[in-house]
Write a structure and sequence with these properties.
The structure is a single chain. With about 400 residues, the protein is of the alpha/beta class. Helices cover about 35% and strands about 25% of the residues. The longest helix is centred in the first third of the chain and has 23 residues, at about 60-85. The radius of gyration is 28 Å and the shape is elongated. It starts with a helix and ends with a strand. It binds coenzyme A.
């Protein structure tokens, strides 16, 4: 979803290069472009006063003529940029097919609150088959805001409605929008990396309350919430000002902008046999540093159901295990670890809480840990120093005096 502001920005040609790169990787791309600032400029140059009702333009004969000119010109410009080839890159010589057409059937909005919106329209049908055929032929499909009706008329549509409807009806993996900021900013001014649709709605309500109704962020949030609720699993918002932000958002694990997801990219859940590889990757370096007791893969396979993991985008970034003791009232929390790049974000806390909850369910009232270097960390989470005699007998027999771990116990 390329807004008119994005197209007007000097960084736009870099964005087009990045789009071309994505395309060369086999990613299927539909570009929907808007033209609000360009239309505003052209209208004011011609002295045409265009009226709005509820933030929606009323497209009369005069303004529509000009809108079509502006949109047509932008189409040529985007086509030209996509055709320029990627000189001085490894993709030099690669050519990109761009296809536009009558893929969108529109209908007039009609009369609302007694006001005739004339040529302002909405999406009626999307020729999904036609678009899919073009994508299968390796073309980029370029969609403008002009749609055509079955009566042979043209209508002025909104880029965000188009992008949303295309994403939903084509069952897209992602909808991507661009704004002047780095993403959706929170009240503290920092980018919010990930939002669920209801969190996005709360932020949108706040923005609207402050009068930010038609900003890039508000427009994107509305589109992302709608598409997410209709089954598009991810939407991203990145900056059009910063070179490379599109690629960084898509190809770095934590991204750089904001993503709106149907469900959180992060999950706290019981481990399965498929997670063993991920757990080994996480704990091996910690075992080598002597922070965790060594476990063989076979042992992990046997004990996998005792493990709880934090999974993020397919990577295991945290784990902990609960070993119930034979006495029926105690249990050991062991192998507590979070990935070094994901520490200090309360994931350790979440694991302790989850293991405590599981222990309580099993009737365990004494949760203990053996640790050499995280004594204070556990003490700050309600564990009290104990000694070996407080451990269940079978654990006392296995106690490794050389390791000399401290025993910490939490009454649940
Ligand atoms: C201990 C560990 C699980 C904490 O993970 P985490 O996801 O960062 O946990 P939280 O975000 O809930 O807690 C972070 C806080 O604990 C502190 N902390 C981290 N490790 C600590 C340690 N070994 N001793 C004391 N405090 C520690 C951090 O400084 C941070 O404090 P702050 O918020 O005041 O800055 C993680 O550091 C780890 O995997 N360590 C290596 C393995 C290990 O020692 N496991 C325990 C043995 S079973």
């Amino acid at each position: 979803m390329l807004g008119g502001e994005c197209i007007a920005h000097p960084n736009f040609s870099n964005i087009v290069d990045d789009i071309a790169l994505l395309k060369s990787l086999g990613i299927k791309i539909i570009l929907v472009y808007g033209a609000r600032p360009q239309i505003e400029k052209a209208l004011s140059e011609q002295g045409i006063n265009s009226e709005f009702h509820h933030q929606q333009r009323i497209t009369n004969d005069d303004s529509f003529d000009l809108i079509k000119q502006v949109v047509g010109r932008l189409q040529f410009e985007i086509n030209a940029l996509l055709s320029k080839g990627l000189v001085n890159t490894p993709m030099q010589g690669a050519s990109i097919n761009v296809v536009s057409g009558n893929f969108i059937t529109a209908q007039p909005i009609g009369i609302k609150d007694g006001i005739d919106f004339c040529y302002t329209g909405k999406v009626r049908r999307v020729d999904t088959l036609g678009i899919q055929e073009q994508l299968a032929q390796n073309a980029i499909v370029l969609i403008s805001i002009i749609g055509y009706s079955v009566t042979g008329e043209s209508f002025n549509l909104s880029a965000e409605e188009l992008a949303t409807q295309l994403a939903i009806r084509l069952d897209a993996d992602k909808m991507i929008g661009f704004c002047s900021e780095h993403g959706v900013l929170g009240e503290d001014g920092n980018v919010i990396a990930e939002m669920l649709p209801n969190q996005a709605q709360t932020r949108l309500d706040e923005l609207e309350k402050h009068g930010q109704i038609m900003t890039g962020t508000a427009i994107y949030l509305r589109a992302a919430i709608a598409s997410c609720k209709a089954g598009v699993s991810r939407s991203h918002l990145v900056s059009y000002q910063q070179d490379g932000s599109l690629l960084q958002e898509l190809f770095s694990r934590d991204g750089i902008g904001t993503q709106i997801v149907m469900e959180s990219a992060e999950q706290l859940r019981q481990a399965t046999i498929e997670d063993i590889g991920g757990i080994v990757d996480l704990i091996k370096p910690l075992e080598e540093q002597g922070l965790l007791v060594r476990r063989s893969r076979e042992q992990l396979e046997m004990e996998i159901t005792l493990f709880t993991i934090v999974e993020r985008d397919g990577l295991v970034i945290g784990c902990a295990a609960l070993y119930p003791a034979n006495d029926g009232i105690s249990g050991e929390m062991a192998c507590v670890a979070t990935h070094p790049q994901y520490r200090k974000a309360s994931r350790g806390d979440a694991l302790v809480n989850e293991i405590s909850k599981q222990a309580t369910k099993l009737g365990i009232s004494k949760l203990f840990v053996l640790t050499t270097s995280s004594i204070h960390w556990f003490r700050e989470r309600g564990f009290e120093p104990g000694d070996i005699t407080k451990l269940p007998v079978e654990k006392q027999a296995l106690y490794n005096f050389q390791r000399n771990s401290k025993v910490l116990i939490k009454e649940l």
